[in-house]
Amino acid sequence: MTYCSPLFGKRRFIKRCPPFIGIDDFAFRKGHSYGTIICDLSTHKPVALLPERYPETISEWLKNHQNIQVVSRDGYQAFRKGIQNASQSILQVYDRWHFVRAVKKQIDACLTSILPSVITLEKEETDQQTFPHETKLQRRQKERAEKKWMMIKSIQQEYKKGKKKVELAREFHMDPRTISKYLNITEMPVQVKRKRKRQTDGFEQYIQQLEQEGKTIREIDAQLRKYGYTGTLSGVRVAIESIRKERKQQGIKESSVRISRRQMISYVWKRKSRLLEEELQLLEQSFKMYP
């Protein structure tokens, strides 16, 4: 009879071990000591706990249960060796999780060998009009500007009603000089963003040309260095990101789209119901280009 550990509830004894079992290890103390748990694949209930995970321990237990036909396990080599030493007739199979992971690894390796690092796909033409894209930061800046303009108008209205600048400064918690400045404003103030100096200043047009040709960041960096660029790779990356961001904000419609191999592989493993329409179209075009 096999004793089941009280960790799983009441103590009980199983007279006969099931023919189909699953085996895995667990930690008594992670990184120091491990044991082995054996479960019935039909009922998904524990059958036995072994104090170790050595091949000899596994073999000894299996030899005492001659009716076992199939063992589901992971890739731990001690389990494989222990089962083989116990009986050559026992069929060893991968458990579902490790089997799916191994299949995914092989498919990813196959896709990596077929797909280029950057995939260029043609966009389908539509009659829909494109509009400039507004970022979250721009929306927040716009909201703050509108809120400030409303405050300025309220200050001007209170001043017309006869309130003094000192009283307005005390009411709005501002310096009197700021109140005087707001009283002279006739239009909504526009914030002008100062352009920061970059390592790539002087190479903007060439970077834009190479980016439109589909060159990667490293390829663009290598080309720039031939013409005297001495900055860093991250400087080139920032310049390219700003070009793409500006193009997106202006609503310029591109005839093609570039997508990385890693992103395309992630589309392959997504459920079809979770894919966006654009992602699904890109995936179908990719399958046609690389059957």
Automatic annotation (TrEMBL):
<dbReference type="InterPro" id="IPR002560">
    <property type="entry name" value="Transposase_DDE"/>
</dbReference>
<dbReference type="Pfam" id="PF01610">
    <property type="entry name" value="DDE_Tnp_ISL3"/>
</dbReference>
<dbReference type="InterPro" id="IPR047951">
    <property type="entry name" value="Transpos_ISL3"/>
</dbReference>
<protein>
    <submittedName>
        <fullName>Transposase</fullName>
    </submittedName>
</protein>
<feature type="domain" description="Transposase IS204/IS1001/IS1096/IS1165 DDE">
    <location>
        <begin position="21"/>
        <end position="213"/>
    </location>
</feature>
